[in-house]
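Structural prep section.
Before we set up the soaks we want a predicted structure of the protein with zinc ion in place, mainly to decide which crystallisation condition to try first. Input record follows.
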Amino acid sequence: MMSLPGAWFDAAQASLFESLVEPLLFALGGSGYLEQAYSGTELFLLGVLQIVLLYAMLRPLEALAPVERWADRRAVRVDVIYTLIHRLGLFSLAVFFALDPLIDELAGVLRLEGFRTFNLDDLWPGVTSIPAVAFVLYLIVLDFAGYWVHRWQHRFDWWWGLHSLHHSQRQMTLWSDNRNHLLDDVLRDVLFALLALCIGMQPGQFVLLIVMTRSIESLHHANLRLGFGRVGELLLVSPHFHRRHHAIGEGHEGAHQGCNFAVLFPIWDLMFGTASLKAGYPATGIRDQLSGRDYGDGFWRQQGLGLVRLVQGFSMVRRMR
Ligand SMILES: [Zn+2]
Ligand SMILES: [Zn+2]
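Run finished without errors. Recording the tokens verbatim:
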């Protein structure tokens, strides 16, 4: 696995591993997992670095130009827990590295059977093999997939049962991106990891892509009065653009069960008729919260209620959201 930030990061990783992780592993009788534990230490440190940097950059901006001010920020605390779980374990990356050997094995079997495995880098030799070009291509493919997975999270009742937890935050902040049902995350991350591996993405490229995408997603959810201007709003998802996706009665209703589904590039919403470029910063949440539907305040209750909605989603006819 590659190290992104540099030599000082490698030193910190080695030091944490030698002083804490390795002795702990030996004490628990897990000396056969040293390599995985070393990669895990890197993911953990990458998560710490990401959270510290995002907090240092986004929190002052939120204080400077907030959309809303709340006397009581208790509802935000649970989102901090979600962020710590996800970014410190770097969920998506853990899934990718768990699936990597399986896909390798599968590719080997397919090759033996005479199938050629696909690699996006080989599309246009000399051009797509340039690392930066290949990275942009992977980014576009995965972002396109991200748009459609998000459409399906709203389209299918059972999946909305899980994803609605993400929409149930009335106090959006830099922490809200990871407020997701764990099952929803596993499902989404497995799909992305499979796609990334099937198009030949290398671990280093995937790490960079996930860290970059997740950081921009944290910005989208910040309590921040920020749009990217007439042209910029069409090029990159802004906090203003994504807030419309969380708007009560708009971000999860209508002909397409919502609007502004894009993860990074609004072009997909423009192409498929789901963009809403209205001005303003609407209140966020889900319509039925206004009539008292409970999505839970604490982590476990939110997870439990999500499972109940999942089961209901399988058994109920489409309802008004
Ligand atoms: Zn959504
Ligand atoms: Zn969101």
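Observations: The mean pLDDT is 87.
Flagged for discussion at group meeting.
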